[in-house]
Amino acid sequence: MRSFYKKMFEDKTFSFTWTPERIDVSNSGDMGYIYGTYKVITSGSSKQQQEILHNFATIWRKNNAGTWKVILEADF
Questions:
Q1: 2-75 topology per CATH
Q2: Over the range 29-44, which residues count as b (16 or more CB within 10 Å of their CB) and which as e?
């Protein structure tokens, strides 16, 4: 994984845009979610610019120390 992402970020044409559409937290304040879209632009090894648009959803939980942690992330 590290080498895959390292190559992406070394690409000078690489761009990542993250756009949340909804963020909500439970009434108890210990769980929350966010969903929206993200766009990746890169030329990669093909040198032809590629644009990838996806939806995402992430579920967060607050632990006993009060820190938010991702418990589930989906890309669709």
A1: Nuclear Transport Factor 2; Chain: A, (3.10.450)
A2: eeeeebbeeeeeebee
